[in-house]
Amino acid sequence: MSSEKVTLAHVARLAGVSIITVSRVLNNKGRFSEATRARVLQAANQLGYVANTAARSLRGHPTQILGMVIPELVSPYFAELARAAADAASQMGYDLAVFTTSRDPERERERVGALLGGLADGLIIVVPIGSAGFLASLERSRAPVVLVNHFGAPTHLPVVRADSFEGSLAAVRHLLALGHRRIGFITGAAHSSQATERLRAYRECMLAAGLWDERLVRPGDFTQQRGVEAGHELLSLEEPPTAIFAASDLTAFGVIAAAQARGLQVPQDLSVVGFDDIPTAAHSHPSLTTVAHPIQAMGQAMVDLIIKAKAGEQVRDVLVEFPSELIVRESSAPPRIPGEKV
Amino acid sequence: MSSEKVTLAHVARLAGVSIITVSRVLNNKGRFSEATRARVLQAANQLGYVANTAARSLRGHPTQILGMVIPELVSPYFAELARAAADAASQMGYDLAVFTTSRDPERERERVGALLGGLADGLIIVVPIGSAGFLASLERSRAPVVLVNHFGAPTHLPVVRADSFEGSLAAVRHLLALGHRRIGFITGAAHSSQATERLRAYRECMLAAGLWDERLVRPGDFTQQRGVEAGHELLSLEEPPTAIFAASDLTAFGVIAAAQARGLQVPQDLSVVGFDDIPTAAHSHPSLTTVAHPIQAMGQAMVDLIIKAKAGEQVRDVLVEFPSELIVRESSAPPRIPGEKV
């Protein structure tokens, strides 16, 4: 196979340009006429040229790859975050390689190690789950790393994160202002610090209103399936809630499915509020009242920070915090007054 | 920074084991007592050891990375496919790096080039959109490549794909058997060969039944938002359909939202069938009748083929085809007879 290896020189010869020009066109550096660019790309394509990025990285030229480690791909929230980062990276001339950890600290450690070992120029770690020791070792390695939605152990690594507490307070206050008194809550996954923040806000708000009742809290895991189950549990209570706040939109959709399966109408018989503002939240019936993170801005901030870190700029202790925002749609309304009850 | 570089030798000294043992534990090769394993991992963690994968790849040891190029992360279908491949890869001792192309042939070419240039051991390309020339150049490069859901230009590269035609026939026949005569269809994205297959099946079936009416076909793009719009368009017709088959589940959910917004009940007033069987299809109300691809088996097949190709086994012209399956749930039912019409 090595005898067949196509090099920059082959491409340059076929395109009738210099090797430097081929290299710069293929790496998207410098400016060229569209004709030159097209000729180089066509020649590279025709010869089946593939850039030897590993070799390039070894020679000290940076690869154009940013790495991102996320807990899972199937969560719409993480998928949106990865898309936002990929878009921002692309605008800056980088590709984004996405790896999943399946929420396994050892897999996280392995992936981070492999990526920083040479695959990626910089690494975005979404919701790091490794120990404080692991974060400290990353700090010592001085590799360009940005943590996203980290609320855990103190660190000097740069962090980009979005609020979950204030947005959740706003969601519960919205339901209280509509006149709800029995408000259920379905938590996120146990290991998630974002889930902890959302529960903390709900609890604080309900305690302050003198309405705290632990029977109204059900454990969840961010999935729609668990929303269906927990929704049925809450709606089977002797005194069921008139509103349910779920720690994710998928869980909220599960609650709506459970309510509808019991013949209840949302929001007339039950108000439902989610968290995340995933794309389907605006295009469902009823459309979903929810709390949104500014995903695009977060993606931009992660990529900006990584690029600064790679350039040797000081990013130690940088913390970029974004607010969350309550978005009121159709799924929340005042409770029926008892006389109207169906 | 190089003076601080932590090597296998440092880890071995701290853990009190040989360098070979450290290497094998970190690469998940060979068998060790849990105690040895824990000691090595703890030492590596404590020292902040990160494997130098690029250097390893240069020395001729293969990296443990498989690459996957998908059109986008936000589609639940592609996210599920990536998860299935990541799971299968993980079981075989590989990591999966996922890249997106945003359906841009040039970005696809760049990513494929970068990955095969050294980042990845083998590459899974989902719905390749490059020209026949690009596929031919991949063939000539003899790199381990597997194409997924490729229905385009003939190629000798190995292909894993799932049927869209027979499953769509089954969906339309199911609606005909329930007694529907006016059956609408919302297409997938224009560039998708899977979308073409689904439309072809619908058209063939409706023509054969003498029920073809092009006014019942609306262009879509696989999204929920477009499902809402196209749903309203179809339901505003003078003679609206009593059933709608959508080329994706998200689009089907959009149709259901549009129907409900118009005061119609699904399936009593309108039957809706989707395609993909995304996780939420089973946990919505009504649950969604849809067509499923065997995603887990597809993920396994892709990874098996890539590993065979990497090992030098003959995979030229291998075609692994999976059937699709109609899954009947609550969203499809016989039409109301006219006298019963609300």
From TrEMBL, chains A, B:
<dbReference type="InterPro" id="IPR010982">
    <property type="entry name" value="Lambda_DNA-bd_dom_sf"/>
</dbReference>
<keyword id="KW-0804">Transcription</keyword>
<dbReference type="InterPro" id="IPR000843">
    <property type="entry name" value="HTH_LacI"/>
</dbReference>
<dbReference type="Pfam" id="PF00356">
    <property type="entry name" value="LacI"/>
</dbReference>
<protein>
    <submittedName>
        <fullName>LacI family transcriptional regulator</fullName>
    </submittedName>
</protein>
<dbReference type="GO" id="GO:0000976">
    <property type="term" value="F:transcription cis-regulatory region binding"/>
</dbReference>
<keyword id="KW-0238">DNA-binding</keyword>
<feature type="domain" description="HTH lacI-type">
    <location>
        <begin position="6"/>
        <end position="60"/>
    </location>
</feature>
<dbReference type="Pfam" id="PF13377">
    <property type="entry name" value="Peripla_BP_3"/>
</dbReference>
<keyword id="KW-0805">Transcription regulation</keyword>
<dbReference type="GO" id="GO:0003700">
    <property type="term" value="F:DNA-binding transcription factor activity"/>
</dbReference>
<dbReference type="InterPro" id="IPR028082">
    <property type="entry name" value="Peripla_BP_I"/>
</dbReference>
<dbReference type="InterPro" id="IPR046335">
    <property type="entry name" value="LacI/GalR-like_sensor"/>
</dbReference>
